[in-house]
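Issue 218. Parser rejects a valid record. Input:
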Amino acid sequence: MDDVSNGTRIRDQREKLLRYAVIVSLGVISLLVLLVRLKNLGALSLWMDEGFYYLAAERILEHGYPLYPSGHVLFKGILYSYLLAAFAAPFGLNEFSLRLFSVLTSVAALPVMYLLARKFLSRGLAFLGVVILALSTWETEYARAVLYFAPLQLVYAAGLLWFIKGYFEDRRKYRTLAAVLFVLAPHVHQLGMGLWFCFPALFLVRGARRFFKKDVLLPFSLVTLTYVLVQVHEALFWKVGYVYEKSVGSLAESVRYFFTGFSLDYFKEILKSFPAMGVLAFLGAALILGETVLRQKNPPEDERGFQRRYFLALCFLLPLVFFGFFRTHVQPRYLFQLRPVLILLYLTALWRVASIVSLLALRPFFPNAGRDKTLRALSCGLLAAGFLAFTDQAGPGEVRSVVNRKYGDRIATDIITRSGRLEHYDHKGVGSYVRTFLREDDRVVAMHMVFQHIYAGRTDYWLWSGGPGTWDAWEKTPGGWKDFYVGARWINSLEGLKTVLRENASRRVWLIASPSLQRRDHISREIADFIKANEDKRVFRGRDGMSEVFLWHDRAGDLTGPGRLLEAEWLPVSGGDVVYPEDASKHCALSLDKIRDRNLETATELRGPFRPGPYNFVLRARIASVESPPSQERLLGISVLSSGDGTVLRSVWARAADFAPAGRFRDFSFRFFLPRESGLTLKIVYRGETDVWLDGFDLLPVEEGP
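Output the parser choked on:
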């Protein structure tokens, strides 16, 4: 008896130590993930759909509900909007604070993922699931966006966990918690309705006898009713939150609109975004479903484990089948809430394949391999190799590329969207510039009216010539056609734009152009050509090198007058600040801080091509302070290269002493020779000797004597 007691005590102590190790490990992983995902969190402008929820949070803080300036209410993700507003109240409305909410929910998903995984997998495999979430580019992307996907994934994973505890472990309080969470989930985002499929999955796994009981039928009826009411409310009352042309006016029309056929598009989306993991996840689901056939003849030894695995496979496949009937824009992000389930099926398949291969490999040499430690060791080795080989879109390098992203960096669109956003857009830079110089009687035309309502402070006209299916945000009102977000008048033709310019000839008219200027499905060629033909009206360019500001009717010429070949504030850099000194070209300059921006590097194309011959390159800048005597340490590295072959034509260093005394803009120049006609690339390196304001760069041909 003493030996049995000692053995039990040792096992209990070992289990207790393992629990502590799990808690500590999850805490360390969560802390590291938090620190990584916080890096540069507010460095880039709001983009994609972030503007809608910034505006919703702002309006909740002002009015108590998400009443848009157009007079419409944003019902989509309304619970998310309120949570965002509550979070912003003490921290302020800015890119960092609003994205912080997503970061925290994504970190909270890590321990929930572990607890969910332990219902199906061993501790080791559950930790691998957490590692995938921690090092995933998908997770990192959505954890750093003012969007509902990270909170939705947390709610979805918690819903699955509580449903399992409630109905597979018969823990009553979790049945209540699951029902409450299921009701709330669609108000984080409608994709939360996918939790409804837990009920038909329960029916298939546990049978009619278990399903047709009060503790199942009551929450099932409640959840079903609330989901139907959400859809009825959407069909009859929603005006904003759509990305397609709303053509339904009743529930029946809504059903006909969405459920018009079957497609495998979302099955394909998984394989596009996760080629290896997707195949193995589907294999894992197939293996589990195969068990159901064998179960009829040979009941499994672990009946509870089988039921949970069967439930997991159904909770993956049933929503995908539903998506097959559901008509919507096909986007991989709409599968984000299913990512934890996909990972669990992937790990299930990976372990089974590793075990089977190990068994087959060892059987000729070890007849009792099934009970041999060698089998487990080989299986673990194959699992580790497979994990490294087949885990898609995850790893320290991939995560680093996301958190260190700068304007101009390329984005793999299948990670976050298939809508063609290949770079992060600088809506903030162009909007802040307009806000600085905006007068009360000016007019503002914007291609993205929501962002410029936020950043510029006002959008009077929305310029958009795309047809149905691009961004159908227009409605006919007693005051004419307007967008239904901020209530800006809609301009959809070149003639309409010219009319606005003509009718406001006595006022300054700003046009804030986004990268939509380059897309013919957004802005027509004739509008784009007209804007480009008015290059003399361009007064500012964003850090992304694509977003621009044009100004008409600047009678005094303060901003549209002669400027530099390249204004320094137009450099495609993520560091620095735009400042507005009166004595700078176009009253604007780029400020570099010696500590924050030290070792900043950037490169940009100069407008060309340029004819062969000698040139003077001129940089106009000023320093904030300087030592006495002036320091000879390197301040700015300047290189001019031929764009054709990358040949360095001249590379020099400017020192703080070159701009002394402090407080006034001064010119620094050097000469170089261009041997043949070519475009030119300018590279700048800032070493941080002192704070400096860069005004602009000029390139002046040198007139040679006879």
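Fixed in the parser; the record now loads. The first strand starts at residue 443 and ends at 446.
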